[in-house]
Design brief:
Number of helices: 17
Shape: globular
Number of strands: 0
Largest sheet: none
Structural class: mainly alpha
Radius of gyration: 22 Å
Low-confidence stretches: none
Number of domains: 1
Mean pLDDT: 82
Order of helices and strands: HHHHHHHHHHHHHHHHH
Helix content: over 70%
């Protein structure tokens, strides 16, 4: 159902919009948690390490695609907030064309360069084969991930956060079933888990297309929405550039974050299978713990995009500040939960007998949870800036985060071993939060001043 976020209490709208996002994000993580439970429990620590060793590369690839499609959807949301139905359809068509071209090129490059990349990541020889085929299969199926992220982003941009949730639940259940089938029945090993991910994502794409056809008349595209006419070449070029100016920096921003994680994993890979497995389990669990903060961030992005398009700057300011306060409380609550029960959850995933692996994971969680506040604020202010069509500040913060994270990981690992890696993320979070929060407050002040000035001039 289409939802107009330009009317009603801002915080209530954001909270209600974020709940389905939260549940959906949790189920999306089940794609990866299924890998941990099924691979770790049935195939052993080395198999789990093979998935974990390339997990950052997998996230980097997915981040690039998700960043691009989310950026395009910001324009779609702004057109919807402005009441421009033709602009919504045209945006959906251009987003589909651009994201498809980007994904195909990106996939081809990754497939060609995969082995050199894995060598650079220091993937241990004993897990190299499984790691290589796991990530290659995921890359071959990247086009399905692109279409799901694109369709889900567009649907959310129009105010519907519930439908992608339902499809994710169904796809997650299918993924678990297929992973068990391919690994236990067909003896496909680690690659079987990757095949299950790709097929379940393809299933979610089919569900999205069917639903849009039935329930979203505003997205029923016709030939004119896809056409590029000579007499409208200037307008088409400007509209394409409008998408790229938001989508490309967001893809870059997400990619930079992925590269930072990739560098950390490369350092982590030098410490052996136990450390790799521990970090794999701990990071996946942490992703679940931070899902509420991420969901608030996505909700803020849609809320801001619609209200920015409708020129309701004061609503943007109120919505962002109130959500930031809620996110502060949430980050403290999630940190307490992870500090008390994080190790127990790790034991559930990999088995309580793996005491050394659990201890390493526990040490990581004990440190990172102290800095969840900064991470939560990054999600809020970064997404608010993106919703306003201001992607350069988030991109700058991502580069700052990459530099700090990479330097800290390498330097501290030399000084303190794998324990030093645990501090690299928190140090980067502090840096990035300062950049995006400062950038947001500067921009919102400028927009508020501009809005007041325009109202004053209109009243004269």
């Amino acid at each position: 159902m289409i939802k107009d976020l330009t009317k009603g209490a801002p915080l209530k709208l954001i909270l209600l919009f974020s709940i389905p996002l939260l549940i959906g994000n949790i189920f999306q993580q089940l794609y990866n948690l299924a890998d941990i439970v099924i691979v770790g429990r049935t195939l052993g620590i080395n198999a789990l390490a093979s998935v974990g060793a390339v997990a950052p590369l997998f996230f980097l690839i997915m981040f690039a695609v998700a960043g691009m499609t989310n950026g395009f959807a910001v324009i779609t949301g702004q057109k919807f907030g402005a009441g421009d139905d033709c602009g919504v359809r045209r945006s959906a068509a251009i987003s589909t064309i651009l994201s498809t071209i980007f994904t195909l090129i990106f996939s081809f490059v990754c497939i060609i360069l995969m082995k050199p990349i894995l060598y650079m990541m220091n993937v241990p020889a004993e897990i190299f084969h499984d790691a290589y085929w796991y990530i290659q299969i995921c890359v071959f199926g990247l086009i399905t991930a692109n279409f799901y992220n694109l369709l889900a982003s567009i649907v959310r941009a129009l105010g519907d956060s519930k439908t992608p949730l339902y499809f994710l639940i169904l796809a997650s259940v299918l993924n678990i079933f297929l992973a068990l089938l391919f690994i236990l029945k067909f003896n496909m090993g680690v690659p079987g888990s990757a095949v299950a991910i790709v097929l379940s994502q393809g299933f979610s794409v089919i569900l999205c297309l069917f639903y849009i056809k039935k329930r979203f008349p505003i997205l029923h595209l016709n030939k004119s929405d896809w056409a590029f006419k000579k007499e409208e070449r200037k307008q088409d070029y400007d509209f394409i550039m409008e998408h790229l100016k938001v989508g490309f920096p967001m893809a870059m921003q997400f990619s930079v974050l992925g590269i930072g994680i990739l560098i950390i994993q490369s350092v982590c890979n030098t410490f052996g299978a136990n450390v790799i497995a521990a970090m794999t389990a701990a990071l996946r669990i942490e992703q679940i713990a931070t899902m509420p903060m991420i969901s608030f961030g996505v909700a803020v992005s849609v809320f801001v995009a619609q209200n920015f398009g409708a020129k309701n700057i004061n609503r943007v300011r109120h919505g962002v500040i109130k959500t930031s306060m809620i996110n502060l409380i949430l980050s403290i609550a999630m940190a307490l939960i992870m500090r008390h029960w994080g190790s127990d959850i790790v034991g559930v995933f990999i088995g309580n007998e793996k005491t050394e692996v659990i201890k390493i994971a526990h040490d990581y969680l004990w440190i990172s949870t102290l800095f969840y506040f900064f991470l939560g604020q990054i999600f809020i202010f970064r997404n608010a800036l993106q919703g306003m069509g201001k992607p350069l500040i988030p991109l700058t913060s991502s580069f700052a985060e990459l530099i700090i994270r990479s330097f800290a990981a390498v330097y501290l690992a030399v000084k303190f071993g794998y324990f030093g890696i645990f501090y690299s993320g928190p140090i980067a979070w502090i840096t990035a939060s300062i950049v995006v929060s400062t950038g947001y407050f500067i921009n919102i002040r400028k927009l508020m001043f501009k809005s007041i000035k325009e109202k004053f001039e209109n009243n004269l």
